[in-house]
Amino acid sequence: xKRIILFIIAAxxxxxxxxxxxxxxxxxxxxxxxxxxxxxxxxRAEMEGRIGRxxxxxxxxxxxxxxxTFSASNGITDSSAAGxxxxxxxxxNNGTLGLSATGDTLSSIAEYLQSQGWGIGIMTSVAIDHxxxxxxxxxxxxxxxxxxxxxxxxxxxxxxFGGAGFHHPQGKKxxxxxxxxxxxxxxxxxxxxxxxEAQRHLNDRRLIxxxxxxxxxxxxxxIGYAIDHIASNSTLKQIVQTSIPFLMNKYDxxxxxxxxxxxxxxxxSNDGRTAIEEVWAMDEALQEAYxxxxxxxxxxxxxxxxxxxxxxxxxxxxxxxxNLQVLQHQQCSQSVLTERFxxxxxxxxxxxxxxxxxxxxxxxxxFWNAVSINADEESQLREAYxxxxxxxxxxxxxxxxxxQAKLGWTxxxxxxxAVPLFAIGVGAELLGGWHDNSEVVPLIRQCLAKPKKCxx
Length: 456
Hints:
alpha/beta, 14 strands, globular, 10-stranded mixed β-sheet, two-stranded antiparallel sheet, 15% strand, Alkaline Phosphatase, subunit A
């Protein structure tokens, strides 16, 4: 039904020659290949007791295509090189942020639009000075220079940032370095640490929306996985909900980059259920942009893509079967499962017994109860138990559950797989078909320069 509605809307709305692109939503699913999207859709269908798909909003958009992702230095990109290509339209070397392969400083689409009077919002589910958000405002030979990149953030005069806090707000090597939160406040940013607090500051000059636990001296990494339900933290959807009225209060045009950054984290761990929930979490945030599009269809462009694929996810690992529904028995992410094993060891005066460790697998993955465990799988679990390594025990459990779901993985790193591209709105048809990731920004600029040719 949703698909029918989307196509009806696309059919009945006609852009006149005077139509002008005023609002751009640029969604980037870090690590999100085509199979991450399809796995999310097929899992939901299996949970409804049928074979097929429950379509994500993104896959119902009127235009779709694919992007190649190689960097200037390798066929497999890292996030900084891919982010730079998606933000600036220029390829660069792995590990480099906002600089060309020859070291020239690049300007992002966000910086260009800011110079044209647009409001700018940059948001993510990971740290706001991470590679993908950083590519839209930062320039550094090494993406790992988080303090330097974060310092550039405070100097951008971009209007809105949202996500986790700064990776290294104090600086790792210089104890006398100015704290990044202090620098941000000096630059006119109000820092809020909850959704409710943010709603009271929608008329402030500039806003940085982070999480309750993010503090001036603490390393900040992410807003928490969707599967882990951290009630105190703002979701990516809530961050987007906040940014739209914040920017609309000040501008008649705005650009917004939204990163689903934790899809990548989950896929690095080969954590299938967690990755699936992160795809849906980004799709829920996308719904907020789509609701805005419905109100401004002749002025809005939404595009959704990824910087690269992570993990080499395959839907099928042996015979001609899928069993994705078994993933429903996973109650937390692999990282939280690791913490639960660690807590068991901390709380025990003696080394926890096999029975105690098994109970953690039972409670969090459904083993021996809802999920049958054969002799070979139990042997693998016992081997993990014998290491007394919490991370190993968690990873082994998730690996077994993934194998039962028939999910395959080729890597714990990035791959060269093409990534999806979905678009709807003004100029969306320019983005259909096969492109390189360095072509997205030039296509957006083409639409901005020649709005009469931007038709659906």
